[in-house]
Write a structure and sequence with these properties.
There is one protein chain. With 387 residues, the chain is an alpha/beta fold. The protein folds into three domains: 6-78, Winged helix-like DNA-binding domain superfamily/Winged helix DNA-binding domain (Arc Repressor Mutant, subunit A, Orthogonal Bundle), CATH 1.10.10.10; 82-195 and 368-382, ATPase, nucleotide binding domain (Nucleotidyltransferase, domain 5); 204-362, Nucleotidyltransferase, domain 5 (2-Layer Sandwich). The protein contains 13 helices and 16 strands. The protein has helices at residues 6-27, 32-39, 43-55, 119-135, 174-182, 191-202, 262-265, 267-276, 282-290, 294-318, 333-347, 350-353, 367-382; strands at residues 30-31, 59-64, 74-78, 84-90, 94-101, 106-113, 144-151, 154-155, 161-164, 169-172, 186-190, 211-216, 220-226, 229-231, 322-326, 357-360. The strands form four sheets. A five-stranded mixed β-sheet has the order 6-5-4-7-11. β12 and β13 form a beta hairpin. α6 crosses α13 (367-382). Zinc ion (ZN) is lined by residues 243, 253, 255, 257, 260.
């Protein structure tokens, strides 16, 4: 048998270093002895890897922790300020950007309405947002480690937006466009996938095995976590539940189909009906509901029922632990929930809905932007891992 090459040894070392780093990220503050216990690596290996991680600025040492007797251990802390990432939620009519540290905590945020969907104008607004966030990043060892963005449409694995019907975009190579400008790792995904990921990492989805996250904003997108992993389908295109047909001869949709779910249950559907009553914008509607306006309450009730119809289909298909309502409509929880729950109860098969929870996104309108930032952080740490 051939002796192990140094290549193999380097690989093992890299893997172990990644394991040690992850255990510090997860359990920080933690001692070298605890890491050795947690990882099963011997103390000498842990010590040498920790020293390298300290040199690389990803780990800091802090003063002695509590001791159960004997010498007090020095504790190790993950240095979340060693670098920063940018997360972008590109909505149909807004851009939200955040600068986060390596633990995903928001350091700075910029939000603006997107008045024009024309590709060049939207790209200018997007880069202005990113430039401003990058300019606000504190000094750090790794600087900006990457940019993650969620977009409202079908995104392929190369980061091209193939089709964003509500933006009227086709074939926009967003990843390449951003990479050309920033020369940084860029990750583009559908905004609902990013939202599902954000809630799973930082919000109400923590620890849930099978979760369908619905991004109910201008349209309806969905992100699925199946067996704790984001499910993206064969080509990365899963999750167009907004275009589930719910009315055979229904309204015409921008996707070319008739009777799509999002035409009846999205914020756009709500605002169309609201404008007939002289209301403009979700904020105005929410305060009218608060004041008990009967017409507005009825509107929310109708949206709740339409949401319930689609959700019943999802429950019957996937039997998830949880369906989560995210994005802007999550703000209307109080007003849509009774009708939504009643409809689900009437329409979903009872076996499927027994264990089911309907939850609202904990991060509210920040689910997608934090998920997008997480993509960039995750990509940064991937480089410490052997393939
Ligand atoms: Zn459609």
């Amino acid at each position: 048998m051939k002796a192990k090459s140094t290549g193999d040894l380097a690989l093992v070392k890299k893997m172990n270093s990644y394991i040690v780093l992850n255990s510090i990220r997860k359990h920080s503050p933690v001692s070298r002895a605890q890491i050795s216990e947690l990882t099963g690596l011997n103390k000498a290996t842990v010590s040498s890897l920790v020293n390298e991680l300290i040199e690389s600025s990803l780990v800091l040492e802090i003063g002695p922790g509590a001791s159960s007797g004997g010498r007090k251990p020095v504790l190790l802390l993950f240095n979340e300020k060693a670098g920063y990432a940018v997360g972008i939620d590109l909505g149909v009519n807004y851009i939200r950007g955040v600068l986060v540290d390596l633990n995903g905590n928001i350091v700075s945020e910029r939000y603006e309405r997107l008045k024009q969907q024309r590709r060049e104008l939207a790209f200018d607004a997007l880069t202005a947002n990113i430039d401003a966030l990058i300019a606000e990043a504190p000094e750090s060892t790794y600087g900006i480690v990457g940019i993650g963005a969620g977009a409202p449409g079908i995104v392929d694995q190369e980061g091209n937006i193939l089709f964003a019907p509500n933006m009227k975009w086709r074939e926009v190579p967003l990843r390449t466009m951003l990479h050309d400008r920033y020369q940084l790792p860029i990750i583009i995904d559908n905004e609902a996938n990013a939202g599902a990921q954000g809630e799973q990492k930082y919000g109400a989805g923590k620890g849930i095995r099978n979760l369908v996250y619905l991004s109910v904003g201008y349209g309806i997108g969905s992100g699925m976590i199946l067996d704790k992993e984001l499910y993206k389908g064969t080509s990365g295109f899963s999750g167009e539940l907004g275009h589930l047909s719910i009315d055979f001869n229904g309204k015409e949709c921008s996707c070319g189909n008739l009777g799509c779910w999002e035409l009846y249950a999205s914020e756009k559907a709500l605002l169309e009906e609201a404008s007939k009553l002289g209301f403009e914008g979700l904020d105005e509607l929410l305060s009218a509901a608060q004041e008990g306006n009967a017409d507005v309450l009825k509107l929310f009730d109708t949206i709740g029922r339409f949401l319930g119809v689609g959700i019943a289909n999802i429950i019957n298909t996937l039997n998830p632990d949880c369906v989560m309502i995210g994005n802007r409509m999550s703000r209307a929880e109080e007003w849509i929930m009774p009708a939504l729950q009643q409809t689900v109860q009437q329409r979903a098969l009872s076996f499927h809905s027994e264990q089911l929870q309907i939850l609202y996104a904990e991060l509210k309108e920040h689910s997608a932007v934090r998920g997008a930032a997480y993509y960039a952080i995750d990509r940064f740490f991937e480089q410490f891992k052997a393939i």
